[in-house]
Specification:
By secondary structure, the protein is α+β, with helices and mostly antiparallel strands. The protein has a single domain, classed as 3-Layer(aba) Sandwich (NADH Oxidase), CATH 3.40.109. The protein is built from nine helices and four strands; from the N terminus they run H-H-E-H-H-E-H-H-H-E-H-E-H. The chain has a four-stranded antiparallel sheet with strand order 1-2-4-3. The longest helix has 25 residues. The protein is globular and about 55 Å long. The model has no long low-confidence stretch (mean pLDDT 93). It binds flavin mononucleotide.
Amino acid sequence: MTTLDPTDLAATTLEDLFVRRRTPKTWSERPVTDEHVAAVHDAVRWGPTAMNASPMRLLLVRTPEARARLAAHMAPGNRDRVLGAPLAVVVAADTRFHEHLGHLAPHVGGARDRFDPDHEGRERMARENTWLQAGYLVVGLRAVGLDVGPMTGMDAAGVDADLLAGTGQRTVMVLNVGWPAEDATPHPRAPRLDFDVVARVI
Ligand SMILES: Cc1cc2nc3c(=O)[nH]c(=O)nc-3n(C[C@H](O)[C@H](O)[C@H](O)COP(=O)(O)O)c2cc1C
């Protein structure tokens, strides 16, 4: 397992993870290494997915050339955000996740072969569980003190055809990742719904 600088592990309470944490638009200059992301992934990969299918795949977009290619597929308001973040990560759903089921779900006999002809079912399961894993990843990145800017405003099919060609992966979102900066959010925080609006007890 990859290890992290323990000084990065300060933010672990619900207050830190959710209540005080914003979605930033700007970043500190401190770089985000592959090892930071790998260490967080080593932990959040244990979050539950259906059949333990674990379909989330990550493309860490680092070089200026690759970053420009990604930015070209983003909505106009998101382009500078992708170009300005220390790291941009394409979070993708692997529609060929079933190739790993023999390893990941040995308790489910024949799962790989049952999924193989079911293209629609695979696409649905890959997307649903990648959304779930992306949530784990966002919270995991926050837990080590990183800030995350998720984005879905883009031509996702364009990203697939350009950066994910031949992989069977489908772009679900792009995450800008960096260390917190002062004044990183341009507007006051919007409210959230109260529990009695969100939940019913029967
Ligand atoms: C799935 C998802 C997609 C988002 N897409 C975009 C986007 O395309 N562009 C953008 O500027 N912000 C985007 N956001 C950021 C949200 O608007 C922001 O997280 C939300 O308003 C909460 O802001 P706060 O954390 O500062 O309270 C997205 C967030 C999520 C979780």
